[in-house]
Write a structure and sequence with these properties.
The chain has 7 helices and 10 strands. The protein has helices at about 110-120, 135, 140-155, 180-185, 230-240, 265-280, 285-295; strands at about 50-60, 65-75, 80-85, 95, 120-125, 175-180, 195-205, 215-225, 245-250, 300-305. The longest helix is centred in the last third of the chain and has 17 residues, at about 265-280. This is Alpha/beta hydrolase family protein.
C-alpha cells in the first residue's frame, strides 16, 4: 500500500457524549520487541471482577506517558474503579486501550472498565499531545504504546510490586483504541510493528500502512456513516491482513456512537470486543465460537476469516 492511499481523518468532529468516551484517536510507533509464546488455551474468567486502578507517571524520552492501569481487583464486582485496590487472585493478560483526540485515559471508561472487569489488565495511556494529528503519522503514539506495554509487563517481575506474578507475560499482548487511537493500533501492526502483539482491535481507524506480518488476530469495528474516518480506508486495511481477522460494521452509525452503552447495539460492540480478546489472549475457543452471534443484530453486519 502506498502512503498516498491513506485517508487523512477530518478534524471537525465534536467530542462524544456519554459512556466516558471521546471521538478521535491517534497512531504511533513501537518500542522493544519480543516474540510472545502463547500459554496453554484456557477458559477466560466467566465471573465479573471488581475494578482497581493504579496511576503511573512514565515517560519515553521527553514524552510524558501518564498511564492509568485498570485491572481485576479483589472485592465485590460493580461500582467505580478503586485506586490501588488489591489485585484479584490469578494471572491476567494485558489488553491496552488508546484514547481519541482531546481526551485522556478516563474518556473511554466503558471500554477500559469492561476489559478489567472481564479479567484483563488494561493500561490506558494519556497522550500528552492529544490533539496533534501529526503524532499519529510520525509514529509517536504507537511508540508510546509500546513503551507503556514494556513498562506494564516489567511490573510482573518487579519485587514487591502488587502486580508481581499476576501478569501473563507468555500470552502476548492486546492493543485497541478508537479513531486516532485506532490508527495508533493499526500503526502497531504496520509501520511501527511490535512483535509482542497477538490481538488488536482498531476502532474507527484509517489505513496506516502495509501489514508487517505480525501473528495477530485483528478485529475492526466501524460505523458505516462515519464522516471522520472513512470506512473504505479501514476496509482496505482489513483486506490487506491475513486471517484471523474480522470486521464488525454498525450500519448507519457515525464515528463513535456504538461505543456508548446506551446505544441500541452497544451489546454487539462490547461482546464482540471482549470475546475477541478472550479468544486471542486466553486461547478461549468458546469465546471464538460466540463471535458471530455476539456481532449479529438488525443494526450490524459481520465479515470474518477466523482460520
Amino acid at each position: 500500500m502506498s502512503v498516498r492511499r491513506r485517508t487523512l481523518l477530518g478534524l471537525g468532529v465534536a467530542a462524544a457524549t456519554g459512556g466516558g468516551m471521546s471521538l478521535l484517536g491517534s497512531s504511533a510507533a513501537a518500542g522493544t520487541l519480543s516474540t510472545p509464546r502463547m500459554s496453554s488455551p484456557r477458559q477466560a474468567p466467566t465471573a465479573q471482577f471488581a475494578i482497581g486502578v493504579r496511576q503511573f507517571n512514565w515517560s519515553r524520552g521527553n514524552r510524558q506517558l501518564t498511564t492509568k492501569v485498570f485491572y481485576p481487583a479483589a472485592g465485590t464486582p460493580g461500582g467505580n474503579p478503586i485506586p490501588n485496590a488489591p489485585i484479584a487472585g490469578g494471572v491476567f493478560p494485558i489488553a491496552e486501550w488508546s484514547h481519541g483526540m482531546g481526551c485522556n485515559s478516563d474518556c473511554y471508561s466503558s471500554q477500559t472498565h469492561d476489559l478489567a472487569s472481564a479479567g484483563f489488565i488494561c493500561p490506558a495511556p494519556s497522550f500528552s499531545d492529544n490533539t496533534n494529528i501529526g503524532s499519529v503519522y510520525n509514529g509517536n503514539w504507537s511508540k508510546d504504546v509500546s513503551e507503556v506495554l514494556t513498562r506494564t509487563l516489567t511490573l510482573n517481575n518487579t519485587a514487591g510490586d502488587p502486580f508481581a506474578g499476576h501478569i501473563d507475560t507468555r500470552a502476548g499482548v492486546g492493543v485497541s483504541g478508537h479513531s486516532m487511537g485506532g490508527m495508533t493500533t493499526h500503526g502497531l501492526l504496520t509501520t511501527w510493528p511490535d512483535n509482542r502483539i497477538v490481538a488488536a482491535v482498531p476502532v474507527a481507524c484509517v489505513d496506516m500502512g502495509n501489514p508487517a506480518g505480525l501473528a495477530a488476530k485483528v478485529l475492526f469495528i466501524h460505523g458505516s456513516n462515519d464522516g471522520t474516518c472513512d470506512i473504505n480506508s479501514a476496509r482496505a486495511a482489513y483486506n490487506e491482513l491475513r486471517a484471523p481477522k474480522a470486521f464488525l460494521t454498525h450500519v448507519g452509525a457515525d464515528h463513535g456512537q456504538y461505543l456508548v452503552p446506551d446505544y441500541r447495539y452497544y451489546a454487539q460492540t462490547k461482546n464482540t470486543f471482549l470475546d475477541w480478546f478472550r479468544w486471542s489472549l486466553y486461547g478461549d475457543t468458546a469465546a471464538r465460537d460466540r463471535l458471530q452471534s455476539d456481532a449479529t443484530s438488525n443494526g450490524t453486519s459481520w465479515q470474518a476469516a477466523l482460520t
